[in-house]
Amino acid sequence: MTQNPPDLRPDLANARLSRDLGTVRPAGQPTIGMVSLGCPKALVDSERILTRLRAEGYAISPDYAGADAVIVNTCGFLDSAKAESLSAIGEALAENGRVVVTGCLGAEPDYITGAHPRVLAVTGPHQYEQVLDAVHKAVPPAPDPFVDLLPARGVSLTPRHYSYLKISEGCNHKCRFCIIPDMRGRLQSRPHRAVMREAEKLVEAGVRELLVISQDTSAYGTDWKDREDKAPILALARDLGSLGAWIRLHYVYPYPHVRELIPAMAEGGVLPYLDIPFQHAHPDVLRRMARPAAAARTLDEIAAWRRECPDITLRSTFIVGYPGETEAEFETLLDWLDEAQLDRVGCFQYENVAGARSNDLPDHVPDEVKQDRWDRFMSKAQAISEAKLAAKVGKVMDVIVDEIDEDGIATCRTKGDAPEIDGNLFIDEETDGLTPGDIVPVEVDEAGEYDLWGRLAG
User: Which positions in this protein are listed as binding [4Fe-4S] cluster 1 (predicted)?
Assistant: First the structure.
């Protein structure tokens, strides 16, 4: 599990909220703190909860001591994630004492209360009403219509110039290593109009980049029984692309209709970026994972995407050390990576998850073998990344400015870089006129293993 980075974690980012909202806390106003763990989907849930609480008159506390109660939004994807969530709950109990637990781990309430019986309440993922009920019971609201003014875009825990846009909940896949469908249920897509209304409001409020997220983005809308389109994500991507913001698609499974997204990327309506969880390349491993075992056809698809959109950036994640993985199967993965030449790659060592069917598979791989394979995989991925970035030296590309530090160094991202998971482009001179959210042309003059450096062009 990854925690939201220090400047974006809700429990730390809340220090910005009182300044950003321009409010002064009146005497007696109830306050709530929040700790958010896990993925961007959980971050969106945290934003929605805080927005509702803010509208009801609650102040948001930047620390434990100033909060009347604390919400911990948990992650439960891996056993290590569960352990970190329990640790965060324990810390909140020790520092504050009044804790409401929500999120993915909340789907296992006995697991939480068994470790921390003093928590006030436990709710599952995206159960917003139950969270609010628990907060109301612990800390009754005291709304003041003359003071509690909610910004048009609600409470945001990301920088003002980009925002996550969640388009669905749940997943219909049955991967043996994953318990997300058990925690978050089957696919439930938000209505097209609701997604577009939220996106339009975000862009009107100054958001320059929308990061589209779900558990299975390319399956968006396929749960609608009365749908007219076979693949509703195509129409949604087209409409989002008309808003004038950067549109970045995450967690896209490589269904055949994904090829129909590529023209929009080539034309500039959607960023030429696909985040696709391939997970492995050997067909036998993929079958044991209960995932589509078509690695060879995937290479053909990648080649087709690149023919139509040569600038496309492909990122993916993989699992090494899956139960039964042989050295030959792992070598196949390395050979596939050589051929695929993916731009951005992440890798995880397989880990048992309570409730996952993969736990019962035979021939689990020893930890030292997992570590060796992870090291070898990441060494190859790093070499590919370094070569691809070196080829960008001398090119001019648009970047979005994320931050300018006290030394005047601007941290930026290209169209091929998502915040917090990909690389950065740094500008270390003539940055006086730049502000976060600016999109400017930059000439790349230096490349590293994962990052670029450049100077303003023109």
Answer: 39, 75, 104
Residues at the annotated binding site? Answer: 39, 75, 104, 171, 175, 178
Give residue 409's domain range.
Answer: 396-456
Q: Report how far residue 42's alpha carbon sits from residue 55's, in angstroms, rounded to the nearest whole number.
A: 20
Q: Which residue has the higher pLDDT, 148 or 340?
A: 340
Work out the burial of residue 435: count CB atoms within 10 Å of its CB; fewer than 13 is exposed, 13-18 middle, 19 or more buried: exposed
| Closest by Cα among 195, 273, 187, 197 to 236 | 195
| pLDDT 10s digits, 248-278 | 999 998 888 999 999 999 999 999 999 999 9
pTM for this entry: 0.77
Q: Are 49 and 33 a contacting pair, CB within 8 Å?
A: no
Residue 4 lies in a domain: no
377 in the same domain as 419:
no
Clarify whether residues 88 and 108 are in a common domain.
Answer: yes
Q: How far is CA 48 from the centre of its chain?
A: 15
Q: Which of 242-268 are b and which e, b meaning 16 or more Cβ less than 10 Å from the residue's Cβ? A: ebebbbbbbbbbbbeebeebbebbbee
Q: What is the pLDDT of residue 143?
A: 58
Cite the annotated binding site for [4Fe-4S] cluster by residue number.
39, 75, 104, 171, 175, 178
What is the separation, in whole angstroms, between the first and last Cα of the chain? Answer: 42
